[in-house]
Write a sequence for this structure.
């Protein structure tokens, strides 16, 4: 499951600077983007299809007439959150300015309503040619971001304006244009999601109503901001997020083992899973007859947050969740924050089954200083970013 705002098409034009787009692809991936490459046929003279597939981890489409039944130029245009054309040749920009579409990339560009970022690279004479100048002005008048090329050495002994910009500058200008954040680049984020289930027999279990939506929203937000993300998911039916390492578990003990195995390298732990407090003392691999289940003896599960807190380093940040009911919700959450050594906790009122399985949430964020930040009804995606903002401040 790709997360919103991450899908980028990298269109590669037929210029010698095509080889520099391989580094650009990597830098975009570092910032949490998922890349689909569409090279023009002429660009394949500089960088082959196999290179793009190896770097992007995705199939590369370069022919308008392949898989015609799926109408690829429309489906690609609709799934892209943005299109980056790098390098953009004078010919390719002329096509864009005049609405020409004679290959897959130009068709996708014409069909897309997503933001388009163009990175020209060519000899100074071509960049300064009145026709190119007019085409660039036309593209900019339509809201397309055209990144100014650098000045410097080109092919041979040529030098001047038209050099492919550095990947760092392209990513910076692109991020500003899209309003994207990459403040978690280099950080490792560990997240738990879903609800654990403690088996009674082959059919029955002790469980809860957690869907895992909030944990998956946190994982999507963290990877979109450049983090390396590991998600430990308990019994969630949500599709895995591309780029996130997802470990599927069922019980509290399995979740603890998965979290402990990844905790030492994590900068941030967000414990959004609903973990069962108890498990049956006896669990059968077969089905127990109803008349044999007159009573059930429970054993308390290990407190995962307390266990991990005992292993934490000073630099690690821990954020927890508290699903409460009634008037004492805030005080109970504050007590949990203190008892488990958390840096912040999100508390919500789940009376009547509220929040579980929903796309929205409301509650309060409490931090170590006792500050309470109310969170009015918002999407779980938005809450994910709010909590990452809180953690980012504490990470420094």
């Amino acid at each position: 499951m790709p997360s919103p705002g991450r899908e980028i098409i990298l269109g590669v034009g037929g210029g010698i600077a095509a080889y520099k787009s391989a580094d650009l692809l990597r830098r975009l991936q570092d910032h949490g983007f998922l890349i689909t490459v569409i090279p023009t046929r002429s660009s394949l003279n500089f960088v082959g299809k196999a290179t793009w597939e190896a770097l992007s981890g995705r199939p590369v489409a370069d022919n308008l007439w392949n898989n015609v039944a799926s109408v690829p130029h429309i489906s690609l245009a609709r799934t892209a959150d943005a299109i980056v054309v790098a390098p953009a040749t004078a010919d390719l920009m002329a096509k864009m300015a005049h609405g020409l579409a004679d290959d897959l990339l130009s068709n996708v560009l014409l069909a897309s309503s997503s933001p388009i970022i163009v990175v020209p690279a060519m000899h100074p004479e071509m960049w300064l040619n009145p026709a190119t100048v007019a085409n660039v002005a036309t593209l900019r008048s339509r809201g397309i971001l055209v990144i100014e090329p650098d000045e410097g050495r080109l092919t041979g002994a040529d030098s001047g304006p038209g050099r492919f910009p550095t990947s760092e500058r392209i990513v910076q200008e692109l991020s500003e244009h899209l309003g994207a954040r990459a403040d978690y680049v280099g950080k490792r984020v560990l997240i738990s999601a879903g609800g654990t289930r403690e088996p009674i027999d082959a059919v029955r279990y002790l469980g809860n109503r957690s869907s895992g939506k909030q944990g998956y929203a946190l994982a999507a937000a963290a990877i979109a901001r450049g983090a390396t993300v590991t998600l430990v998911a308990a019994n969630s039916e949500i599709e895995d997020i591309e780029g996130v390492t997802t470990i599927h578990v069922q019980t509290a003990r399995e979740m603890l083992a998965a979290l402990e195995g990844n905790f030492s390298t994590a900068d941030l732990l967000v414990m959004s899973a609903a973990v069962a407090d108890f498990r049956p003392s006896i669990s059968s691999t077969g089905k127990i007859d109803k008349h044999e289940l007159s009573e059930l003896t429970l054993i308390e599960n290990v407190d995962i947050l307390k266990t991990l807190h005992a292993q934490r380093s000073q630099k690690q940040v821990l954020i927890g969740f508290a699903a409460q009911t009634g008037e004492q919700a805030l005080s109970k959450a504050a007590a949990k924050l203190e008892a488990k050594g958390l840096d912040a906790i999100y508390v919500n009122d789940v009376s009547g089954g509220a929040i579980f399985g929903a796309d929205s949430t409301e509650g309060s964020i409490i931090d170590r200083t006792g500050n309470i930040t109310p969170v009015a009804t918002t999407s779980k995606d938005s809450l994910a970013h709010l909590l990452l903002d809180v953690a980012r401040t504490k990470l420094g």
Observations:
- The first strand starts at residue 7 and ends at 12.
